[in-house]
Amino acid sequence: MTTLKQIHDATTLNNGVTMPWLGLGVWKTKDGDEVVQAVTDALAAGYRSIDTAASYGNEAGVGQALQASGIPREQLFVTTKVWNADQGFESTLRAFEESRRKLQLETIDLYLIHWPVKGKYKETWKALIKLRDEGYVRAIGVSNFQVHHLQDLIDDSGVVPAVNQVEFHPLLQQLELRRFCQKQRIQLEAWSPLMQGNLDLPLLTELAGKYGKSPAQIILRWDLQHGIVTIPKSVTKHRIQENADLFDFALTDEDMTRLDGLNQDRRFGPDPDNFDF
Hints:
Elements: E1 10-12, E2 18-20, E3 24-25, H1 33-44, E4 49-51, H2 59-69, E5 77-82, H3 89-103, E6 108-113, H4 121-133, E7 137-143, H5 147-157, E8 163-167, H6 175-184, E9 187-191, H7 202-211, H8 215-225, E10 229-230, H9 237-244, H10 253-260
Parallel strand pairs: 3-4, 4-5, 5-6, 6-7, 7-8, 8-9, 9-10
Antiparallel strand pairs: 1-2
Helix pairs in contact: 1-2, 2-3, 3-4, 4-5, 7-8
């Protein structure tokens, strides 16, 4: 079980780069004032990891907030992703330059392939390896990759992704994928950890009462104790703060096991094997 005491606690990726366990996700956060404010509020609450993507359309706002924060660059961890339409070797390199320009950053901490686009993700991965080897990216990884995609990538390139960011929550626990990632030392990261707001489960309500926390905080703590990097998304200041208030309690082994029992293999987002790329 992962022991976590404060928001700045970090995991060490398979290439030695450290990544905070908790970050702010900005999916569906509007560019401009909304994303600038969300990132600003998160940084004020102690977050140091921000997760965006080219397809979110808000990299410029994220960059603006980071620049205005005054926080030293080496204390920040910034993730972005190459979108499906930009996959391929040369097109990924171009897309990366565009992301870097919008974010106003010399280097990106973590660059991910957003989805496993068949026939393209291997060439895309080669572009990511080049960016890492040339020092433009500190760590490279993937998002929404199943075991067979990961194996294909590793067999082809010999390079193991540092991170696999997938939909993960109590109703979708991805057990086979988690076992594979642990074996390969791929850090699993959860998107939609809060099940897109579908928190009305009796066990969550019970445990929230027991620990004096919200159902969302129970899930996020469960994630962290399982060694899963998590990036809850919110644009509301008090929720951003609440989502970070996870380090003054710990779930018992018994309660962890009870939460583990909620798995239904239920997705709220697209299935990577049946996704319209």
